Amino acid sequence: MLKRIRLACSECDTDEGDGIDSIPSTWINVTEFQSLAESENEVPADDKTRSAFQWYTHLGICPRCQTSEDTPCPT
């Protein structure tokens, strides 16, 4: 069984990498942030150690954000 990856871009809000089975070669600086199980845990509103916005398992830079350092990535 393939491992499900939830890949997010550190520069923009794209979720195009959510639920993929492998990391695209076009993404750079990808690091594992947390496990799939951890990413799917609900974060209580009073939890000061985690953020509900950290839904991803891996964090990197998407191809669109790599193309221009001055122009923000479209979402």
What does this protein look like?
The chain has helices at 36-40, 63-67, and strands at residues 5-9, 17-20, 28-32, 58-61. It is globular, with a radius of gyration of 13 Å. The termini are far apart. A 4-stranded mixed beta sheet has the order 2-1-4-3. With 75 residues, the chain is α+β, with helices and mostly antiparallel strands. Helices cover 13% and strands 24% of the residues.
Task: Estimate the helix proportion, in percent.
Answer: 10-25%
Rg from alpha-carbon coordinates: 13 Å
Decide which structural class fits the backbone. alpha+beta
Distance between the termini: 31 Å
| Unreliable stretches covering 5 or more consecutive residues | none
Q: State the major sheet.
A: 4 strands, mixed
- SSE order: EEEHEH
How many strand units? Answer: 4
What average pLDDT do the residues reach? 86
Count of alpha and pi helical runs: 2
**Main β-sheet, spatial strand arrangement:** 2-1-4-3
Specify the overall morphology. globular
Structural features:
single chain; 75 residues; alpha+beta; 4-stranded mixed beta sheet; 13% helix; globular
Give a brief description.
With 75 residues, this protein is of the alpha+beta class. It is 13% helix and 24% strand.
Write the layout of secondary structure elements.
Layout: E1 5-9, E2 17-20, E3 28-32, H1 36-40, E4 58-61, H2 63-67
Parallel strand pairs: 1-4
Antiparallel strand pairs: 1-2, 3-4
